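A quick aside before the break. I want you to see a complete sequence-to-structure record at least once, exactly as it would be stored in a machine-readable document. Don't worry about memorizing anything.
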Amino acid sequence: MDWYLKCLRQYADFNGRARRKEYWMFVLFNIIFAIVAGIIDGIIGLNLFSIIYPLVVLIPGLAVAVRRLHDIGKSGWYYLLILIPIIGFIIILIWFCREGETTTNQWGENPKQITI
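That is the input. The structure line, written in tokens, reads:
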């Protein structure tokens, strides 16, 4: 949950790097909360939460995806590959599963080596 909250605190921070763990925990909690929103919408009979929740996490989701690309040494603009049907998704998925660069790159220090 700490990783999810970290992404929400860095709401529109497109600078820096994000570890794999940070990105995938954010994705996991987004899936869980989207399912809960769908269940709540089913109970109350409105599509209120299923529409509002994705809008709320859109910017933090883009920000953590860009920071994840920075971690592997790619520009955030590469995220636009997701617009290419199937192939773009596969490329982005492979990149998001890769280990980040172990050294400092132009977007900052290795987040695994930074002590809090």
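Two observations worth writing down. Helices lie at 2-9, 20-44, 48-56, 58-71, 87-97. Residues 2-97 form one domain. We'll return to this after the break.
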